[in-house]
Request: fold
Amino acid sequence: MFGSSSGNPVDEIDRTYPMQRRIGTVCVFGGAMLGSDPDHARSARILGQSIAAAGIRLVYGGGRDGLMGQVAVAAAETGGTVIAITPQFLVERMNMLAAGCQVITVPDMSIRKQLMFAYADAFIALPGGIGTVEELTEVMTLRKLERHCKPLVFANFNDFWSPLLGVFDAMAEAGFMSGPARCTHLVSASPEAILPLLQRGVAFEQTETPKPVLLPTIPVLRRSHVPTAGIG
Ligand code: AMP
Reply:
């Protein structure tokens, strides 16, 4: 169900549905490595070009490496606006984009993710590894908890995400996902179809009451309250 395009809730919308909001910024997650399927890099570049050609700003994790680098280089070369949000420790390790990219350096991975989430109107998950999975599942969890209503598209190139989408189906069948939790994402098999799907997703979300994105306040623990047992 999640793995097929017919599982997308926006497929129910009439194609002439008026666009109520445009995507200004899209956040792309994706592997810091290229992976073994050369089609993925090709598709990532097509996506980067189409993001730039549509005048949409790209926010991503930074660097030239991997699929995330492919999408960013292609967007920058097509004249798009690219923003890399990256923690200091990765700047020192990474091959950064040379030109056409604004770099925002942050203290750690968690602030980076909060900034990426706050900037983005929509999310795309390219094929990737555990880092990509961590990012996309957080978007889905926050969506399920109604902290935002921004669409997420799985770029299911060559069925890369189908096993994970199958796990979501298994979770639903086992009673761990219901109603709104099953509508936290969209799926596209081709790079060309992603932006139209996201745009329809944004229009679709506008039919729901938008919820503000709330960043959690972190309680300041007094020294006597800091748990020490069980560590080290
Ligand atoms: P992975 O899928 O495990 O390769 O991790 C890639 C995702 O995690 C990207 O979407 C990035 O936001 C983040 N990430 C992991 N490793 C790096 C890295 N070396 N440089 C920049 N971002 C990274």
